[in-house]
Amino acid sequence: MIVIVKKSTAPAAVEALSNQLRTFGVDVHLSQGSVHTVLGLVGDTSKLDIDQLKTLECVEDVKRIQEPFKNANRKFHPLDTAIKVGKNIIGGGTVTVIAGPCSVESEEQIIEVAQKVKASGAKLLRGGAFKPRTSPYAFQGLREEGLRLLSLAKKATGLPIVTEIMDIAQLELFADVDVIQVGARNMQNFELLKQLGRTRQPILLKRGLANTYQELLMSAEYIMASGNENVILCERGIRTFETYTRNTLDVSAVPVLKKLSHLPVIVDPSHAIGVAEFIPPLALASLAAGADGLMVEVHNNPACAKCDGMQSLTPVQFDELMKKVAKLSAAII
Ligand code: PEP
Ligand code: MN
Q1: pTM, whole model, 2 decimals?
Q2: How far is the CA of 307 from the centre of ligand 2 (A)?
Q3: Do 5 and 39 touch, CB atoms closer than 8 A?
Q4: What is the mean pLDDT of the chain?
Q5: Is the CB of 102 within 6 Å of ligand 1?
């Protein structure tokens, strides 16, 4: 980090500023130019608040030369992180497909979908029990009963389960959940992130509807800084001016996040585009861009789905996609 000192600041004030900065545990190197004095801060600057430094009397400007996230940063952890979930490894050169309905609706539905996606090669089962819906009148999920049905599907198929948490008070119900999902709408629920940092269960952190890569990585940092290193990033489409599709898949997120961070990156093309027929090409594009996996919505009867039927693949369509995923994975791994 570089602190540019205001012109004509007295040497004693520069010295006082340097001493103040040292109290944050960084080394301060002074460069005296003909016009400006510049202080170079070396060490862990992630805890320094740029905006606060800028308010100091003798400070002209402050520039970060290193990203403000540390635990999630590839610079401090050059190797890919691989996260073990049951018998599966997510990240580190593997391709993992998570599939299942938007929401758990009944025992028959979740078990049938689980068996079918497993037969097609999915490694984890998804299904919402607590659903974040735009309308309070829409189906809110089966809640505790939904979690119980997911556990039954896990027992019946051996597939680990992924489901969304919306409030930390729900955590005690998530003991049998293999991957806890933080949805797009909660990406910046910092209290929730901090509490999830106290567990060791893997967290699937979805990018918010209008959040930058850095904001996503700072949210991952919240979880990691609280002690849980098992974070999987998920690109799920962002809001743009386009209204033809539900959101716009930001494929650029994949190579950029993988450059900035060592964490696995998976893509959810279902919520990105919102229309079933366009999901297979986006899924393949995401893997070609380097994604560590996919999360795809599959329903045994999309026309009658209680949530997101339009974007749900049938088991047959999912099976066709998985055949292409297998061919593409063989070509790119
Ligand atoms: C979901 O995966 O069910 C979901 C609600 O996704 P998102 O948070 O990305 O909208
Ligand atoms: Mn959905």
Answers
A1: 0.92
A2: 6
A3: yes
A4: 96
A5: yes
